[in-house]
Amino acid sequence: MPDYLFQHFYSTLAIIAFLLAALVLHHYSKRGREWIPVRAAPSGCLAFIILLTVLTFLVSCLFSAIRTGKTWEEAVFILARLLALAGALAVISRLTNYYMHRDGIKDTLNPGESTARLACRLRNRGICLFLIIGVIIFIIDLFTITLPVPELPPGSAFLISTPIPLPEENAPEILISSRVTNRFFGESDFDLVVRNANGHKYVFPSILINPGGGSAITIYRLRPAGGRNEGSLLFTNEIQICLLNLATMQVKMLRGPSSNYPSADPEDLYGPDIENRLEIIGLYRGRSCMPGVEHTRETRARLLKNLHEVE
User: Fold this and answer.
1) Which residues pair with 241 in a beta bridge?
2) For residue range 135-180, what is the model confidence (pLDDT) as tens digits?
3) Residues near 158 by beta carbon (within 8 Å), at least 6 away in sequence
4) Which of 177, 202, 237, 286 could form a disulfide with 161 if both were Cys (CB 3.0 to 4.6 A apart)?
5) To the nearest 5 percent, what fractions of the chain are helix, strand and coil?
6) Any residues with CB less than 8 A from the CB of 48 and at least 6 apart, and which?
7) Can you tell me the distance from the alpha carbon of 148 to that of 128, in angstroms, rounded to the nearest whole number?
């Protein structure tokens, strides 16, 4: 996904630099077996990036439709990385055979050696070069982890968004996504995108800020008296609490550090008897939202305490 490439901006630039260098060598070099690994390895790097991007997108779409736990998500994403690695090695192998067949290369130093064994040696050299490039890119990624990286704008279609499941048929479409702001400290901002029944789109950037360790968000619904569909959604990551008023399409803050959003008013709570009108929607963590799950047993009690303070 593009947001993943932006998070690893400098290592992505390093991969592009290796590809450009390979193109220059390919253009000015003579045809020969010594150049086959140099041509094949960067192509394997490109194949790895493309496959990882496509597989990450497909897996993210899968977890947006199917609710699973964090363990399953991590396992599937590890599998996606292994499949991308296997695809890159397959590309190196096929390109090695292609260049040998195109250039008619044979082992002139060891005439008795079969073409298959020569292809195996050249393929292994290409894989070794691919791994060396990978180690260099990992080192670049490690030493640039504290540097600022470009960010996608809030509400961008390239961000991985997760729908929040609301039971009503005519409920607005609500998507939540996270943007990494500092990989070294694990900091990220959570954005909200709302589309109402008329198709109007509302973008609320940085409704919650994760300074590290607050990546799980519990979502509640505060129904108004009378049981109307309008009401408020409450988001808490145990550090901050924010409220989205579905009637006015405004975001208010209940608890947390300074924010661009105003503080919540008693009118946003729609009257007394909050305990009976507060219902759990689900837990957003990773790239899925698990309905009916709270982060901890104390999450609801802390939220009610803050709601009573506003009331």
Assistant:
1) 236, 255
2) 887 887 777 777 766 667 776 776 777 888 877 767 788 888 877 7
3) 1, 2, 3, 152
4) 177
5) 45, 20, 35
6) 84, 85, 87, 88
7) 31
